[in-house]
Amino acid sequence: MPSQALLTVVLLFGGRSSEHTISCATAGGVLSAIDRSKYRVIPVGITREGAFTLQDDDADLFRLNPDAMPLVSDNGTRVSWPDSALSRELTYRDAAGESHSLGDVDVVFPILHGPYGEDGTVQGLLELVGLPYVGNGVLASALGMDKHYTKSVLEAAGVQVAPWVTVTPHQWSTERELWHGRAVSLGLPLFVKPARAGSSVGVTKVASLDDLDAALDVAFAEDSKALIESAVVGREVECGVLSGRGGAPTRVSVAGEIIVTGREFYDFEAKYLDDSAAQLVCPADLHEGELTEMQRVAARAFDAIGGSGLARVDFFFTGTDFIVNELNTMPGFTPISMYPKCWEASGMTYPELIDELITLGLEAIR
After folding, report:
1. Residue 302 within any structural domain of the chain
2. I need a labelling partner for 25 at 20 to 30 A (CA). Which of 66, 175, 203, 270 fits?
3. How many domains does the chain have?
4. pTM of the entire predicted model
5. Residue 120 sits in which domain range?
6. Reduced to 3 states, what is the DSSP secondary structure of residue 6?
7. What are the residue ranges of helices labelled H in the chain?
8. Same structural domain for residues 153 and 278?
């Protein structure tokens, strides 16, 4: 019998955000694990300047390396999306200016983190040209990217979140006394975060109100609004979420736990650069009833934003309550990241997880 035709998957990574290198590392993981007997992969890397380039299908080029983080280099190629929803043909121009066809695309796998990729912008582009894609749609991506609106929606859905206020540079400079008072009412310590960034970029733990201005400067360097948030004392636990197939209920993995040692919190360096700064434990030590409750809240949070495909839900567990810290619509997806680790502990290997996400992307109705 003839072999089944391969599905063509565009792996889209890099991007303009401060999480460019993490997206590239995720690409390295996916390239090394995707089932080549089922998929033909077209690696499309977005440079820091926003150029869509055709990259080599070589996982080693994009492996996570704390000493030399991977990047999308501008090799002079330019990838063009279909010019209408009537075509699925991808084309590119080589460095010499010659145009070539890459054939028809079955599905796009955007593994972009942060603004200009995880926030609904790329998802909107793909919908405009009629290409199926993996992961959350425009609305859920935009909600999940903006911590203020995520909290607002979750709170309305009855999901507990840490108390917070959101402030802009103009508000802070013109109504400083008002906003300072609101920050004081949250108590100490505080966390100051950009509203729309990930991987703990721009996040500062504030133990003294004297440090609030400097923390806001760091956050405003990443975004035009910042959250000032009460610190919650509790275990840092998280779980992976997958859509159910064919309209079936949302699926939730077992829990993982982050145990931070020698740092104030689980910051960017602890996540990606210093493997001694934190221990990722999966499965986490939770009683059956605690795990069931965590999974219930995670599914409720995912459904509240209209999630599709995948997410990671991060909690503080106080011993009695699961308080959602963040809902990440494109979680870290390297082989050592918590999201695939939680699904592996739930019985789904990394290659199987990639396969499941592509299947969900192909069946998604936007």
Report:
1. yes
2. 203
3. 3
4. 0.91
5. 7-133
6. coil
7. 20-33, 121-128, 138-145, 147-156, 169-174, 176-185, 212-220, 268, 288-304, 338-345, 350-363
8. yes
CATH of the domain at 37: 3.40.50.20
* Residue 264 DSSP code: S
Q: Are residues 116 and 150 in the same domain?
A: no
- Residue 67: which pLDDT band, with cuts at 50, 70 and 90? confident
Burial class (CB in 10 A: 0-12, 13-18, 19+), 149: middle
Is 193 part of a structural domain of the chain? Answer: yes
Residue type at position 166 = T
pLDDT digits over 134-168, tens only?
Answer: 999 999 999 999 999 999 999 999 999 999 999 99
Number of H helices, E strands in the chain: 11, 16
Q: Please tell me the distance from the alpha carbon of residue 231 to that of residue 221, in angstroms, as a whole number.
A: 22
Residue 180: which of 194, 165, 195 has the closest Cα? 165
- Give the pLDDT confidence score for residue 1 in this predicted structure: 38
**40/114 same-domain check:** yes
For the sheet containing 89-93, what is the strand order?
78-80, 89-93, 99-104
Listed in sequence order, the residues at least 6 apart from 313 whose beta carbon sits closer than 8 Å to its beta carbon are 238, 239, 241, 297, 298, 301, 302, 324, 326, 327, 328
Question: Does the residue 125 lie in any domain?
Answer: yes
